[in-house]
Amino acid sequence: MTRAHRRPARGGRRTTASRTVETAPAAAPRDLAAPEPATPADLVVATADPSLLRMLTFALDQMRLPHQSFTSGTVVLQRLLDLPRGGRPTVVVLDVDLPGVDGHAILERLGSERPDEFLIVVLSSHADESVQVRSLLAGALDHMAKPFNVRVLMAKLHRWVTIARHYEVAA
Amino acid sequence: MLSLDVLAVALTVEGTLIAAALGGLVVLRLYLVWRARQVEAGVARLEPLLHAWLVEDADLGAVVAFLRAQPPHVAFRSVARLATAYVTFERQQILAPLLRGEPWVQRILRHGRSMFWWRRFDAARLLSIVGGPDDVTMVAALLSDRSPAVRLVAIDAAARLGGRLVDLELDSLPGRQDAVQQYQFAALNRHPAIVAEALVPRLRPEVPAVMLNAWIDAAGASANPVALWRVRDLALHEAPEVRLHVARALRRHAEPETVPVLLKLLTDDDWRVRAQAARALGALRVISAARPLALAVRDRAWWVRYRAALALAQIGGEARELLLEVSRGSDPLARDMSALVAGLSSAAVVEMSEV
Amino acid sequence: MSSELTAWFVYLVTTADVAILWYMLLVNSFFALLLVLAAPQLFAHWRFGSEDVLARSLTSSAVPRVSILVPAHNEAVTIVDSLRALLTLQYPYFEVVLVNDGSTDDTMQRLLEAYDLYEVPPAVMRRLRTERVKAYYRSKTWTKLLVVDKQNGGKADSLNVGLDAARFPYVLACDADTLIEPDALLRLARPFLFDQKIAAVGGTIRVVNSCTVEEGRIIDARVDSRWLSGIQTVEYLRAFLFGRLGWNLLGGNLIISGAFGLFRRDYLTEILGYATSTVTEDFELIVRLQRYLKEQGAAAKVVFIPDPVAWTEVPTSVAVFGRQRERWHRGLISTMVAHRALIFNPRYGPTGLIAMPYFLFAELLAPVVEAVGLVITVLCTFAGVLSLRFAVFFFVAAYLFGTLLSLAAILMEEVSFHRYRRPLDTLRLVFFAFIEPFGYRQITVWFRLKAFVRYFQGDHSWGRMKREGFGAAAAPAAGVRPAA
C-alpha cells in the first residue's frame, strides 16, 4: 500500500486510518458458476498482508465474486457498523492481524452490536485449538489457519454468498 | 615529543578508517538495495504464477521454469518467502519433488555441509520446502548441528520427511529448552501415526523423569489416544514432576477412564499437580467433577483456586451454579476467585483456561 | 627556582594529558572490541530474523507466554491509543496489565469508557510490598486486558503491582508512551528458539522524533533534523546496536532498558521486584538480577537482541535533556555504590570482573576524566604550556574515535535492519555523527558532573519532567539510557 500521508509525529500520535484499498471488480459476465450480481458490500475482505490480499482478489475475481477490501481494522469495523441494518447478511473474510483493531476485537464488537448480520471467516496464523475455539465462540462461521487452501476457502465463500442472498435478516 | 607522534599516528589511522566507513556506507547501501530489489522482483513475478496454481490448479511447469531462469539466491528467496506463507503442507508435497532435481536447488543443498552456519541454514531452510527421501541423512546431521538456528530450521525439514527422523527428534527432545520443544511438537504433529508408534515404547515408569516429562508432553501435544493411554498409566509415578506433566497432557485425552485418574490427581500433595488436574477436568468438560472442583476452589494454593474456578466456568450448567454458590460462600479467597471467574465472558474463559 | 617549578608543572600537565589520552584510547578500544564482538551476532540475528521462521513461530506454541506490564501516570491524552497498539500486537499468548499509578488527570476515566471496564474482586497473589491497590478491572471487550488502579507510588512500585497481578511466566516491562513494533514480542522470543535458558531479554530502542506514526505503529522511520534529537538518534543506534550486543559475549548485559525489557517473572519475584528507592530502577534491577543469578548458580542468561523493537521520544530541549542525563548518571552512581561488592569480585564471573569495572571506569568516571582533560588542555594552551598543535591533535584524536564508532553503528544499521529508507536520513545520521563532539559531548559531561554534586547532596528525586508530542506530561522514557 502506498503511504499517502507523510508528516512528522510531533503533533501527537495520529489516529487517522491508513488508506483503504478499494478493489473495483471488473464487471463480471454472468455465467452459470456465478451467483446473482451483488452489491459490493456482499463480500468484504480485510487483511493487512498485501500478498495475501492479491491472492484473494485474484481468486475472488476468478470466481466473479464482487468484493470490497480493507487493510485497516479501524476502517473495516466502521464500514461494517455503518451498513444499514437488516438486509442481507454480509460475508466477511477477516484476518486476525489488523492494525488498529484486531480481528478478534472486530468479531466481538460485531457479535455484540450486530449479531447474525455477518457471516465471518477468520484467517489467522495461529493453528492452536484455543484460538480456533475462541473465534468460533465469538461468532465466526469458520476459522482457517494460515497457510490455508484457497480453493477450499473460495468454495466456502461461494456457498455463503449464495446462502446470504437467500435469506434476509429481520430488521 | 613522543605523544605528539602517537597522536599523529592515531589521527591517520582514524582518518583512514572513517574514510573506509563512509565508502563502505555508500557501496553497501547501493549493493544491498540492488540485491533486495532483485529478490523483490523475483517474488513479485513468482507470486502470480503461484497464485494461478493455488487458485486454479494451473500447471506448475511455469513456476519451475521461472525459478530455473533466476539466479539461485533469487529463486531460493522467492520460494522460501511465498511457499511458507501461502502454500499448505499438502500442496508443498506436490511442489517439492518437482523442484528437488533443479540445478539451483542442488547448488544450495551442497552447502549443507559448509563450514559457515548461514550456508547450512539456507540448505536446511530449502530442505524444509523441497526435501525428499534422499535427504534423510543430511537432515539428520542438520538436526544436531552446532548452530541453534540451523537445528531449528532442520526441525521443519525433518517434519517434511518423517520416518526415522521422528525417532531422532524424540530422542533430542529432553535436552531442549521449552520453546524449542514446543516448536518440535508442532512439527511432529505432521506425522501423528509415526509419532504415536515411537512414543508408546518410550512411556515407561522406569525411564528417567527428565526424559519421561518431555515425552509425556509430546504425547499431550499429539493428542494421540494410544500414547495418552500410556501416559495415564504413569499417573501414580512417584516423582511429582512427572505427575504434573501427566495431568497436563491428559486434558487432551477424552476417555471415560481418564476421569477417575484426574480426580485422584486433583487431591495430590503437590499443588502444581492439583492445578493441572483441575485444568484438565475443565478442558474435558467433566460434569461429574463439578463437586470436587468446587472444593478445589477453596484450595490454599492460588493456582489451584484459579484453575478450578475456570474449570467450573468452562464446564458450565450445573458446574456454573456451584461456582456462583462458592462466590456467595464464607471463604474470602474462594469467594473472590469464583466471583472473578463467574464474571468473565465465555471468550475470556476459553482464553484463560487454554493458556 | 621559578623556571624549575614551571618545568615541573609542564611535566605534570603533560603526563596528566597523556594519561587522559591513554584512558580515552583504552575506553574507545574497548568499544571497538564490543563492536568486533557484536558484528557476527548482528549478522546472525538479522539472517535468522529476516527469514519467515519468525512468522512460523506464530503458528506453533513455541513462544513464551508474556504479561506486558504498563505503568501509567497522568497519560490521559494518549493512554487509549497506546493501549490499543499494545493489545493488537502480533503474538499468540499475551496479556496486558495496565497499572494506573494514582493519576491525577482523567486517565482512569478514559480507560473505563474506552475499554468497557468493570471492577473484579482482588483475586491476585500478593507477594511484593507495594502501595495500596484501589481496584482491579477487567474489560468486557478485550479479554487480554487487566487494569489495576492504585495509590501513587512511582514507576517501580507500579511495576511491582503489575508483577503480582501478572499470570504468565514472563513479564515485559514497558512505558506507556513507548511505541512498540507490532512484531516486537515475536522478535524478543527469538533467543528462546535459540535453545537458551533465559532470565531476561532486551531489545533495541530507537528514537521516534520525526517518524510518521499511524494507529500506534511506525510506518515511516525518519531522522530528526534538529541537532539535539538528531544526535541522540545516532547515540541510541551506537549504544544499542553494538554497545550492548557485544556484552552478550562478555558475561551478559547490565542494562536492559526500562522502556522495554522481558524478564522471567519468578526471578523478579525472588529478588523482590523493582527497588523503589532508586532513580533508575531498570539498571539497579539488572545488576541485582545478575547478582542473584550468580549467587544461585543459575545458568539463565540476560541477553540482548539488536532488532528495533520499541521507539521512544527523546528530549528536544537542553533543559529536559539535562535533567534526564543527570538522573541517569545519579542512578548509575547510587547503583554502583550499592553493589560495589561485585566490582573485581571473581565470584561474580565476567559480571564482576569485566562489566562492573567497565561501568565504574568507562561510564561512571568518564565525565570526570573528560572534564579534567578539557580544562587542563584549554588552560595550558592559553598559558602557553602546551603547544596549540598538541591541543588540537589531542581533541581531534579523542573525538574522532567516537565519530568512527558512530559511523560503524550507522554502517551496521544500513546492512542489517535498514529502517531508514531514505538516503537523506542516512546523510543526516552521518552529519550528526560528525558534529556530536562539538557541543553535545561537553553538555553531556556537564550534566553528568552535576549528578555527582546532587548525589552527594543526597537528592533522590526524579526531577521535573516535561514532554512534547505524544505522551504529554509523562516522564522522559525512564532509563532508556543509551550511554555506550
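qc> DSSP finds 21 helices and no strands in chain B.
qc> done
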